[in-house]
Design a protein that fits this description.
Shape: globular
Bound molecules: protoporphyrin IX containing FE
Number of domains: 1
CATH class: Mainly Alpha
Strand content: 5-15%
Structural class: alpha+beta
Largest sheet: 4 strands, mixed
CATH superfamily: Cytochrome P450
Radius of gyration: 21 Å
Number of strands: 11
Helix content: 40-55%
Amino acid sequence: MEVHRVSTYLDVEHALRITDLKQSLYDEGKILMDKVLVTLHGDEHRQRRSIESQLFRKNFFRVYENEVFPDLLRETLDQFLTDSSLDLKELGYRIMVHLSLSFAGIDRIEGTVEEADAQHRLLIQLGQAATIGQFKGDREPIFQEIREAIDEFRERFFLPSRARRLAILEEYRAGNLSEEALPRDILTILLMHDAELSMPDELMVREVAFFYLAASHTSVHTLVHATNELFNWCANENNTPEEIVANPHQLQRFVLESMRLHPSSPEAWRRAEADVTLADGRLIPKGDKVVIELQTANRDVTVFGEDATEFNPLRTLQGRISPAGMSFGGGMHVCLGMNLVAGTVLRDSEAPNPENHQFGTVTLIIKELIERGMLPNPDQPPQKIEASERDVWATYPVLF
Ligand code: HEM
């Protein structure tokens, strides 16, 4: 079996649309990832995705950004923004654990710090399933930890959240509750469509846990990078962060530019289900692996210009090129949470519609934190994870 790499922007875009290339990044993480949305293929994937996409029906984003999100953010900041000196990565996890669980359909029951700690620990334990393919040592202790984490997640959080939603759905079906009043989360959607999906219980637990994972690490990664780029830009350009965030459209463009430079998933992996031909004419025999380099594509100078490796939120983009590049993937697995986290992603030729524009959670969080006085901590420089080839922050000390 050979490995083929695809790295120019147009070739990456094309490869992600080849239906005979099947997801393979999570092949070793079946313990959690087997048959969750991102690992499904063909009709099974289409059916589940079209049902889950119904969550974003009608006015989902308007309600989310104006009502649901501000309350969730305020609750988390009241509980965890208690010191004038903090690590932004840690605070980011506190915020994202809360937002992602709410989106997945898992309730906070006690609302205590101990409960939030347990939810954060489970996120880290479950998350190992997504990266175990790259782990070289003895995997059995890790599988055991993941197994226990799935059980704990199910007993402590999934079952009570499901029971509450089943009761609400009964009220809805009896005509005592409007559709608008239903919780806006994946678990509710799965339960509403139980008959069509016929998902075994244990798969529903893992699907909800997968959404929790997919939404959390990626968003924290983006939050810290985008804040760092904002601070650096302001230091170099003689702006203040307050000036930038005062115009949320401008701040959103900073966030999208940071997403382009620092995608949370630098690569997508696929396996050829049949012989396929790539955009550059290469023939890939059935069974071979294709590594689709999202991060390299996002730095393609023929698309983003000679300064493609630099942060420049003022860059102009051709035609249909997204300011976030390929960071959300493309084709059938294109990120389902893109608009939630990034908002309405406009091309250079498009003007925002003031009636119906979303900014995305990362822009809204950075705006709130800057308005609350967040600054880099001059005495403690931020640090990256050295052992990792990836561009990941270990700590990002800030002051309020
Ligand atoms: C900056 C944040 C995020 C980035 C960069 C990101 C990136 C991606 C990428 C690259 C994929 C495609 C993977 C592939 O093709 O193999 C993907 C898929 C997915 N993402 Fe995201 N994601 C982010 C946030 C989120 C959030 C907040 C959610 C949920 C609310 C989410 C849910 C999903 C789901 C469910 C899929 C699988 C879709 C499918 O297979 O049909 N993501 N994401």
